[in-house]
Amino acid sequence: MKFYRCEICGDPYMGTEKPSHCPFCGAPGKYMVLASEWVDENKELGQLSEISKKNLEQALQLEVNNTAFYRDAMKKTGNIELEGIFKNLSKIEAEHAATLKKILQCEPPPVEPGKEVASDSDRENIDAAHKREQSATAFYRKSAEEAVEPRVKKVFTALIEIESDHIGLEEALLENME
Length: 178
Description:
This protein is mainly α and 178 residues long. The protein has four helices and three strands, in the order βββαααα.
């Protein structure tokens, strides 16, 4: 048995093989390191630049909103496969919020009114999720470019990769619905 930790969320994983993605935040396997080699980069971060702090706060709000949206979509679907997908996406978005919260050393904001509401239509929810992930990816791309701190740049870069995976999943779901 081997122990790994994710360089993005910090969560530990135990298994015989390194996972292809972090089972908690969805980060690609390249961010999974042996637990003995893991370093808590948040402790070495120091003072955040104003632009990074602003972008991290906006990202935290986005992830909090998306967590609630996916949770609502999960409750409203009658499709067992989609229920599992929405549940998993909600957990991943919650892990992103927890990661951002650790960097900012703050409590998460409340969900913005109306941002958590999913439709009764699976198709509409997948469309909405797709738009949310595309918007998040564009924002994270800009935020990674603006970040001056290596840790912040790394987190935003990983979020781009993770959310891009979600976009691919949603595109496949939409294609299968046609």
